[in-house]
Amino acid sequence: MICRRIIPCLDIKNGKTVKGVSFQNLVDLGEPVEMAKKYSHEGADELVILDITATLEEREVFLDMVEHIGRQINIPLCVGGGISSVDHAIKILRAGADKIVVNSAAILNPNLINQLSETLGKQCVVVAIDAELINEQWVVKAKSATYTTNLQLFEWAFEVQKRGAGEILFTSIDHDGTNNGYALAPLSFLAENLSIPIIASGGAGSMLHFDELFRNTKVSGALAAGVFHRNQIRISELKALLFQNQINVRLKN
Question: Which residues are catalytic?
Fold first, then answer.
């Protein structure tokens, strides 16, 4: 039985942690370093940091922040935002990250996934896929969901796996920030039909949503942001509930 992961995510803009709804109307929710320390202490399984404007601003992720956070936590650190080359990915790993996340750059240049996997090892490579339900089709979006591609979610996910990704982080743009629960149907399909781990993102609003996700899909992990940042859910309490409900999670010693 797989051990399900609980993964907080820090979306970073101008050095602050922000959160919105469907990637819009972002509000400042706190200092990234202090939040990272809190989540590590509470028993999070991993921490994801996404520099959400790096791609739009055509710059590299803030390495000094990665270094600072990496020194403050004792859980795996996964970093994304504007990564478009193997050299850039290596800089992030050397700064203290355990994994890197690519999204828009992989859409523009799918061979980047192969290059990253062959150079760094697939265990280091997470491909994020943001998709929106349009005319009953899950359509992949890029550049912080500002650009609609001609890619279909499931076709792109299978290609990503074939090219050597170690994990897929799937975010439903329709569910992001709504607190109405995860997009169970596409997540179930991805987890059932792909052989690499799937991380669910977008929609968590209560502990019931995590329980529902793990009971109804085979996803490896659940990522959330706002419910953790606003202290609506404490990770330690969430894991205790999931464990009580016979869902396999790692409890903090």
Answer: 11, 130
